[in-house]
Amino acid sequence: MINLLPRLRKVSAFVVVVWACSFLDFDVNAESVDVFANPISVRPGIRFEATEGALIFRGGFELRSRDSRFGGLSGLTISDDGVELVAISDRGWWLKALLVYGAGGDLISLNNAELSPILHLDGRQNEDKAWLDAEALARLPGGDFIVVFERVHRLWRYSNVDAIARSLCINSIFTNLPYNRGIEALITLDGGRLLAIAESGPSAHTLSGWIFDGVQAESLSYPYDGYFRPSDAARLDKHRILVLERGYNERRGVAARLMLLDVVSVIASSDLQPRRFIELGPPVPLDNFEGLAVRRDPLGKLFVYLLSDDNYSSSQRTLLLMFEFLEVD
Asked: What domains are defined for the chain?
């Protein structure tokens, strides 16, 4: 394990009170939360060779908070300018914060953290834990969010983190998914379509996937090697999808790797064939990575962000890491 630097950076925050809707008789609060960004002992600039390029480590830290609601972070989005982070937790919370970069562009801290309840269709936060397990997050071109939940499997749409949920009319497709093995990766495709990949499937070597186009859902499959399962995905560019896979068992422990998938191969009834890009390892710390986001800056540089889910466990960590994605020459 990597020894973390002892000095904690306390993150300032502010309180914003948001009215859910004028015709409701209650309000919803976006509450500030103190988060501490503890840098990991990995030097920015280290290069990790991959099959089709490389990753350059550009900063990262462990996030900690004394607030019991903080943790369990899964889906992740980063704004195009790299400033705004939005994530979801598996206990029904939005996390919104601002990222801070150094003069050289390395990620150095996180500020203005807020927690907001993920609202139900009636505008309230459901108290039943089975309804709170948010596992995947995608942001549509217009700014709306799509949140995927498991246990009670469904896709809900939100105009922002304070909005009331709107149900999508494709939820019946999830009827046969195992209780705690639902969709983990959700990606936007061209034409308003979505690609969803579950962590369960019909056989020992196949995981389930779907292309959602409006109310229509067409199935496809994703390969499973018995260890690595997809935990998130993001569009790398017009032609490729980057898939985050995590692995865990008692014998091999925890692992994480990134896979590349060609967009043109994502068609109904297809057997997807992702190819290995890189398996992460020392000196990069490993944990239960479940969040992945990609952005391109005005100069054309690609950046990849990884976020880990600590499962609200003292033996795990919430890690946020940033890499520069280098193309093949």
From this structure: 9-326 (2.115.10)
Token pair for 166: 């709107």
Coil, strand or helix at 131: helix
- Condensed to tens digits (0 to 9), the pLDDT of residues 168-222 reads 888 778 778 999 899 999 999 999 999 999 999 999 999 999 999 988 899 999 9
For residues 185 and 235, the answer to whether their CB atoms sit within 8 Å is no
How far CA 57 is from CA of 41, 46, 241, in Å, comes to 12, 5, 20
How buried is residue 208: exposed, middle or buried, by Cβ count under 10 Å (0-12/13-18/19+)?
Answer: buried
The predicted model gives 16-42 an average pLDDT of: 63
* Residue 146 pLDDT grade (very low, low, confident, very high; cuts 50, 70, 90): very high
Amino acid at 64: R
Tokens of 225: 């090697």
Decide: 321 and 305 in contact? Cβ < 8 Å: yes
Q: How confident is the model at residue 139 (pLDDT cuts 50, 70, 90)?
A: very high
Burial of residue 117 (CB within 10 Å: 0-12, 13-18, 19+) is buried
Of the candidates 130, 155, 153, the residue with the CA atom closest to the CA atom of residue 144: 155
What is the pTM for the complete model shown? 0.90
Query: CA–CA separation, 313 vs 263, rounded Å?
Result: 36
d(C-alpha 37, C-alpha 30), whole Å: 21
Long-range contacts of 195-203 (CB under 8 A, 24+ apart): 195/233, 195/241, 195/266, 196/136, 196/148, 196/155, 197/222, 197/230, 197/233, 197/243, 199/229, 199/230, 199/231
Structure-block tokens of residue 106: 């390395």
